Amino acid sequence: MNVFSRTFLPAAVESGLARSTVSRHLPILRQCVAGDDAVTLLARCVRPDRRLGGEFLLLLTHRRLVVVRETWPLRRLRLHLNSDLRHLRHVSWTTDPHYSQVELAATAIDGVRERFCIRGTRAKHVWRLDTLFTEAFRPRSATDATQASHGPANQPPNAEQRPDPARSARQPLAPAPVYAGF
């Protein structure tokens, strides 16, 4: 059993989706996500600008965001969005605990701005969604990016003690004189 299968079922139980809905969407989601990618969130959502356009199922993993559309009268499934998280730009989300909902917005690689509204059952669930989005889309600092690309084991010993030639070539700026009177 791969990582996707082990993490998909607990996420489905946490989301409260019906077993028939999960089994209907599973073949499409399995094609879009690699077997070694863990599922972080599985939730039903709608588009705020098109409430009557059908429902969507949002799947968030550590590497991908997949959204499947279910048409209303015939319940046909169509892949709406399948994107690597690195290719999403201008990702933002708004948490509204009063209405128990989170609105997620992102610009896909083709330049289309996508917005999805996820309803929570209570305020605690909304804050859990906010935490999951923060972990998935938080901006990585320069030290995190360096360690992810090089890793602490690949850095030479005493790497932080070596002088940086580019930095030592620059002269520090002198402070500007301050005049008390004119």
Task: Explain how this protein is built.
The chain has 182 residues and is α+β, with helices and mostly antiparallel strands. It has a single domain (3-139), classed as Roll (PH-domain like), CATH 2.30.29.30. Helix content is 31%, strand content 29%. The chain contains 5 helices and 7 strands; from the N terminus they run ααβββββββααα. It has helices at residues 3-15, 19-32, 123-137, 142-150, 165-169; strands at 39-46, 55-61, 64-70, 77-84, 89-96, 101-107, 113-119. It has a 7-stranded antiparallel β-sheet with strand order 4-3-2-1-7-6-5, with helices on both faces. The longest helix has 15 residues, at 123-137. The chain is globular, with a radius of gyration of 23 Å. Residues 146-182 have low confidence and may be disordered.
